[in-house]
Amino acid sequence: MAKKAKSRTIAVRLISMAMTGYYRTMIRPRVHRPLSMMKYDPVIKKQVLFLEATKGGKNK
Amino acid sequence: MPPMKPVLPKDAKSVTDLPLRLRNFLARYPPEIHSAAVRRPDFSKLSAELSEEKASGEVPSPYTPDRDAKGSAGLEKGAWTPSKALLITTTELRNPFLPNKRYGKWEAPRYGLRQQADLMKLAIKYGAEGLLPPSQKSTEYKETRRAERGLAIKGTGVGQKVKGHKWERTMESRLEERRKAMEGMPELVRLWKQRGHGRGWKQWPKR
Predict the structure, then answer these.
(1) What is the distance in angstroms between the Cα of B161 and the nearest Cα belonging to chain A?
(2) Which pLDDT tens digit goes with each residue over B168-206?
(3) CB-based contacts of B132, cutoff 8 Å, min separation 6
(4) Domains detected in chain A
(5) What's the pTM value of the predicted model, to 2 decimals?
(6) Which of B178, B180, B201 sits opposite A36 (nearest CB)?
(7) Which chain A residues are within 8 Å of B178, Cβ to Cβ?
(8) Of B35, B37, B18, which is closest to residue B123 (Cα–Cα)?
(9) Phi and psi of B127, rounded to 5°?
(10) CA B140, CA B22: separation in Å to the nearest integer?
(11) Does the model's ipTM exceed the 0.90 cut?
């Protein structure tokens, strides 16, 4: 039996690099490169770098 | 230290003013030999040693390095405490208020705790507490013990600490980690911008 088709998009978690434990969840196309952006971290009340983290930390 | 002579209370002119029960006790266990003041010749030395030990040994920080670390245990079960030092007596003359090991066997105290308490209350009433042998019921012992154990609130006694919530115990290390991360943030952002806003980025964090 054929495997179920994978969805075109995936939900990813962008972790605050301020090590506050704060993160945002976003949706990106599966084939897209990993997301990274400057976003507001409410714990330290500043804009900091957010980097995508996937299970196992395997990013292209 | 020379043995102190037990002093009669000021308000009682002589031993004969004391109630019969106390007098009988004092006749059987003369204060010159048995009283708390005489029986603890080395206590001042002991307490000095203990306080020195306490001063030199730092109290461990209640914070643990990370969330997975276990907090350190409190006082050991058999640990040496000032209250235990209060009950130290010489072995030649048995203290009627304490159990005694003789011929390899434990002997029960001559006076049970209730009788001790009665005698102690009588003695306190007549201001003659210093004439009785060291006892768990003495004011001194009770005060020391209360100081050790705190106000019956766990962690408030001498050498104890409040366990607290995990977020409280790990707060120090987490704040430190956050502070370090924020110090390196401008450099990290600069690198990130340099590498095409993440296009050439290699160190992605693990979830």
Answers:
(1) 28
(2) 889 999 999 999 999 999 999 999 999 988 888 888 888
(3) B25, B31, B34, B35, B36, B97, B119, B120, B123, B138
(4) 9-52 (2.20.28.120)
(5) 0.45
(6) B201
(7) 18-20, 43-44
(8) B18
(9) 65, 30
(10) 19
(11) no
* Interval B86-131: pLDDT, tens: 777 666 778 888 888 778 888 888 899 999 999 999 999 988 888 8
Cβ partners under 8 Å of residue A45, min gap 6: none
CB contact under 8 A, B207 and A18: no
Nearest CA in chain B to A47: B185
Residue A14 sits at φ, ψ, to 5 deg, of -100, 120
Answer yes or no: do A57 and B205 touch at CB < 8 A.
yes
* B189: amino acid identity, one letter: V
Domain locations in chain B? 15-42+78-149, 163-206
